[in-house]
Amino acid sequence: MLASLRTVLVRATDRAAIRMTGGARRPGEPPIVRPRLPFVGHALEIGRDLTALLRACQREHGDVFTLLVAGQRMHFICDPLSYPQVLKAQDNLTFHEIGQEIGTRAFGYHSPPPGPGLDELERYYHEHLKNAALAPLTARMEERLRVAFDRFTGDDWQEQGLFDFSARVIFAAGMETLYGEGIADDAALRDFQRTDRWFPLLAAGVPARAFPGLLRARERLLVRVDPMRPDASAFIRARDLLLAKITTPRNRQLLQAAIVWASQANTLPAAFWSLAHLLHDPPGRAAIVAEVEERGFGDLKRLPKLFSSVCESLRLCSESLTIRLVHRDCELTLAEGKTIALRAGDRVALCPQLMHRDPEIFPDPERFHFDRFLSEGGGPRQFRKRGQRVPIPLMPYGGGVSMCPGRFLANNEVMLFAGLALTRLDIELLEPGLPPLDKTRAGLGVLSPTRDLRCRIRRKPRA
């Protein structure tokens, strides 16, 4: 009895030590970067500038180290050659619990439990958001973008913020592509932006009721997308029918409304940066305009320069974290045979922004080069580190089982937005330079600018 009680007390003490300081380092585990604050750990530093913190830790401790973040041990793996080993270790490193936690905190829904229903839902995403199934959505997106450009521009010059303009166009076109014409207006955009503004704190566990007006804004968005409109996309209508089979009516509504955020949150800033970078790069802008005017938008694969420029913008402005939960005590073998020990309940994290700004992989990494992702022959370029090919050189959409299933549509949308804006509009920037990235959203996807970029816009005069 005493031995059992002693064991329980030791385990409870170990758990408390982990949550407060990171606990003791066991043999084979990565080095622990001791925090200044108990429990909070490095959370505040991550909120200020994630990549700066990770670079400092990497210089001192190497490519693998452990941080304490709000009572949770997180093992950061910074060598991009080891990314595939992390993403493939699905028996020991899982994502479902993390996705469920974020979805419940931020949107109030509960993911369907593991089983046939969840498997069917995941298959549906991957089958209906790529290859041939993507063509109708892309064609509809082009149509709605053209309508939105006409709606928000005129024949005379209008002075406005480029980010605000990009957000209005992308939000209107994206919502109408998925949910039907007329569903998006300025009020809907404000409700979305209120939801998006507080997403980092919601995902961290702060209750939604702590933010004035958030619950009402979220409910208004839900009312807009439920029930289905007759001209909603086939993808959304079929998804709604599938959700009705595998979850409760209220949870179906919450899951349906959550895709509003998922389809917009990263696309809005990505569209802004893709256009802003090209406006600041006259040779790149001229090359993209020439390519689009020669080949049109009938097949986006025939626009490699435009595709490369979007990839380059994403390299510079995306700062996502790919996180896995350690399901059981295990060892993980990394590149070059190095092995680390992991404990059940810990988390493993990849921060691709470190790779995206690595001068060994991307020379002159802080500069925008529109053709960086093109080889001399015009095909995709390969990138190397320590003489080895980097297997996944660009990760703006996550990786492995948590990779965004809508990434192909999002990429097409940003390509269409930038290409149409440059060929249909006259845009003059009214200030030099680009605004800084908003680092307070680090780890959550594409970063917004800290301020807008003043410009003036009009439709191109007709010949």
Strand segment tally: 14
Task: Enter the CATH topology name.
Answer: Cytochrome p450
CATH class value: Mainly Alpha
The largest sheet, given as strand count, sense and whether it forms a barrel, is:
5 strands, mixed
Instruction: Tell me, rounded to a whole number, the average pLDDT.
Output: 92
Q: Could you say what the CATH architecture is?
A: Orthogonal Bundle
Domains counted in the coordinates: how many? 1
Which percent range describes the beta-strand content? 5-15%
Instruction: Output the number of helix runs.
Output: 17
Helical coverage, percent range:
40-55%
The CATH homologous superfamily name equals: Cytochrome P450
Radius of gyration: 23 Å
Shape: globular
What is the spatial order of strands in the main beta sheet?
A: 1-2-9-6-3
Alpha carbon gap, first and last residue = 91 Å
Task: Note poorly predicted spans.
Answer: none
Q: What is the chains' assembly state?
A: single chain
Structural class designation = alpha+beta
Descriptive account of the structure:
Pathway: Lipid metabolism; bile acid biosynthesis. By secondary structure, the protein is α+β, with helices and mostly antiparallel strands. The chain has one domain (79-459): Orthogonal Bundle (Cytochrome p450), CATH 1.10.630.10. The chain has 17 helices and 14 strands. It has helices spanning 2-21, 43-61, 83-88, 96-107, 116-128, 134-151, 162-179, 186-197, 199-204, 214-225, 234-246, 249-264, 267-279, 282-295, 304-317, 352-356, 407-424; strands at 64-69, 72-77, 93-94, 158-161, 318-320, 322-326, 330-333, 339-342, 347-350, 384-385, 388-389, 425-429, 444-446, 454-459. Strand 10 (384-385) and strand 11 form a beta hairpin. Helix 6 packs parallel to helix 17 and helix 11 (234-246) runs antiparallel to helix 12. The longest helix has 20 residues, at 2-21. It is globular.
